[in-house]
Amino acid sequence: MTLSTKRALLKGFLDMLPLCLAVIPWGILCGSLAIQNGFTAVETQAMSLLVFAGSAQLVAIELIAGNTSLLTILFTTFIISSRHFLYGLAVRHKVIDQPMRWRLPVSFVLTDELFAFSHHRKAYRTKTRLIYALSAGFSFYITWNLWTLIGIVAGSLLPDLTNLGLDFAIAATFIALVIPAIKNLATLATVVSSGVVASVLKSQGFELWLVAAALTAMTTGYLISRIRGKLEHN
Amino acid sequence: MMTIILLMACITFCTRYLFLHRDLPFKVGPKMQQFLSFSAPAVLTAIWVPIVFVTDKGINLDWQNPYLSAAIAAIIIAYKTHNIYYTTLVGMGLFLILN
Q1: Is residue B14 part of a domain?
Q2: Residues 6 or more apart from A201 whose CB is under 8 A from it?
Q3: Cβ of B99 and A164 within 8 Å?
Q4: Fewer CB within 10 Å: C terminus or N terminus of chain B?
Q5: Measured between alpha carbons, how far is B90 from B48 in angstroms, rounded to an integer?
Q6: Percent of chain A with pLDDT over 90
């Protein structure tokens, strides 16, 4: 293993570490909630190993426990997962020239968390950057499965960590990722409109709040950057 | 049960893989790329802001809300330091004290 490979592996792991820790309450909840709702240990772990999508898993566990129809479960999974289309589109030009053996694992671990580390101009474009991304992505995968396992084994012994307000950890890590990225008016407008629209739609119980807020905010940011571009030309 | 889990896995994987597939009948043009460049701040903010403001009872704008004060502290630290470790530690620390 070369020095640059080792460095990329370590940097990927360390950059993702705060996010791996921030999802502890959710990982444990995924494990314990499934067990409480009659899933076997194998099924519960398989869900984290194969589906690997926290919000989709938690919602599906509730739906399955409520004897919801298969079609509804799958449709809901699709709605919650539809934000991944945006991620794929956004990183497509960076990843698409890489062979399948890199693109396949990258897409498997392309979570919200990994996407947050994907804006660098050269992200995914060099071997070192790919190793960095896979190290970050798979360290998140491994820890997510570890937290699920803890939830399976010790879920009944632990208090419900999500009621302690530990969900704030996710907010704090995302704040740390978003705020430094605000470098111009367009991005500031994106962030403000996204927060307002998401909060209003979610509090109204609108199912598509996440995607709707993201698209509205992206449109706002895009329009402002176009207008500013035109003003600078004139 | 295993069937449901496998079908769900197919859905999440397909949504992640689709646009990383080579042979798609379109190209992402420069305007689309510019639009997409706002996707990370947009989606991440749409996830974190409701954690701070939205409760089961609606939007909570109360200044006593520990989520709000800790979030403001985290925003200031993130702006000043650009460091994810400091931001998370200070934000979480303050939140646990207030809560």
Answers
A1: no
A2: A208, A209, A212, A213
A3: yes
A4: C
A5: 17
A6: 81
